Amino acid sequence: HNMAVVAEICDRVGVMYSGSVVEIANTLTIFEEAVHPYTKALIGAIPKKAKRGKLKTIPGIVPDPVNPPTGCRFHPRCKNALEKCSEEKPKLIEIEAGHKVACHLFSP
């Protein structure tokens, strides 16, 4: 992922995890106000210019693309997962104008 290029050339961003769209918003919102746990972890893993050392990673095992987990594909790695996350794939819903997320934490 080259997030610097994304920030420089994109007006809107769609974030995918294991083949599923998890969040869509304008670029500034994705970088400053992301709400999906994967998007937040992805942004949090961007190396800081002033820091050297080990790169930050997202804990857990990347799912098998041929046999993905049921429900939300990120739930095995998500620190906020609900029971529902392992049972039902969340729908992409608009949480504010132009900002959509597929996460049970934001389901009505």
Summarize the amount of helix as a percent range.
10-25%
Element-level helix/strand string: HEEHHEE
Structural class: alpha+beta
Provide the gyration radius in Å.
14 Å
Question: Can you offer a commentary on this structure?
Answer:
The chain is α+β, with helices and mostly antiparallel strands and 108 residues long. It has one domain (3-106). The protein contains 3 helices and 4 strands, in the order H-E-E-H-H-E-E. A 4-stranded antiparallel β-sheet has the order 1-2-4-3. The longest helix is centred in the middle third of the chain and has 8 residues, at 37-44. It is globular. 22% of the residues are buried. The mean pLDDT is 91.
In short:
With 108 residues, this protein is α+β, with helices and mostly antiparallel strands.
Keywords:
four-stranded antiparallel beta sheet, alpha+beta, 3 helices, 108 residues, single chain
